[in-house]
């Protein structure tokens, strides 16, 4: 991998083998509609059941609001809305995954609302391919580090810092 250009996206320079080796590990998998996503397990702090979310005035549509989690106010983003999916009614499987990542040089703790948590998967280097090239109109792919293959399923491996970066960090 080249290191002389700080503005280059490293995932575009890595071969499939290097990318697989870099991304291999344990992922918390969850479902949004019929799609399966994975978060690096080390970024997951906890999983909590759906609780009352207080709306924040004038926030982005996908920011559902904030929750009070043991005395700490945490913003909650609805990943369905963030990814341009239709909103859906909460079920007994709907949960908030509390994640922590580095965004803009500071630690960000945030909840992400998902349809259902599935399992923790160990994804080996040979099971990972680069993100699909979907053209410039596909914004969701900018959050995808790679695609994991688990049996017949496809798991989109997310860069949660990119998903929650920018405007979400200001919420």
Task: Characterize the structure shown.
The protein is mainly β and 171 residues long. The protein is 10% helix and 44% strand. The protein has helices at residues 16-23, 79-82, 160-164, and strands at 25-32, 35-40, 44-49, 63-69, 72-78, 95-103, 106-114, 116-123, 128-129, 144-150, 153-158. The strands form 2 sheets. It has a 6-stranded mixed β-sheet. It has a 5-stranded mixed β-sheet with strand order 3-6-7-5-4. Strand 10 and strand 11 (153-158) form a beta hairpin. Mean pLDDT is 85; it is low at 1-14 and 167-171.
Which features characterize this protein?
171 residues, mainly beta, six-stranded mixed sheet, five-stranded mixed sheet, 3 helices, 10% helix, globular, disordered N terminus, disordered C terminus
Question: For the report, how would you describe the main beta sheet?
Answer: 6 strands, mixed
The number of E-state strands comes to 11
Kindly state the percentage of residues in helix. under 10%
Helical run tally: 3
**What integer is the average pLDDT?**
85
Strand order of the largest sheet: 8-1-2-11-10-9
Q: What overall form do the CA principal axes indicate? A: globular
How do you describe this structure in short?
The protein has 171 residues and is mainly beta. The protein contains three helices and eleven strands, in the order H-E-E-E-E-E-H-E-E-E-E-E-E-H.
């Amino acid at each position: 991998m080249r290191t002389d250009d700080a503005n280059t996206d490293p995932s575009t320079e890595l071969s499939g083998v290097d990318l697989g080796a870099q991304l291999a590990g344990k992922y918390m998998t969850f479902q949004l509609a019929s799609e399966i996503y994975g978060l690096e397990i080390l970024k997951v702090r906890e999983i909590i059941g759906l609780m009352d979310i207080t709306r924040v005035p004038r926030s982005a549509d996908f920011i559902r609001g904030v929750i009070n989690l043991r005395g700490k106010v945490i913003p909650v983003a609805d990943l369905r809305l963030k990814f341009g999916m239709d909103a859906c009614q909460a079920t007994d499987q709907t949960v908030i995954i509390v994640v922590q990542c580095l965004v803009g040089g500071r630690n960000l703790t945030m909840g992400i609302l998902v349809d259902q948590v599935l399992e923790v998967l160990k994804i080996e280097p040979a099971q990972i391919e680069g993100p699909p090239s979907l053209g410039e109109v596909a914004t969701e792919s900018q959050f995808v580090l790679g695609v994991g293959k688990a049996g017949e399923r496809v798991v989109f491996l997310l860069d949660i810092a990119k998903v929650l970066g920018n405007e979400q960090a200001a919420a």
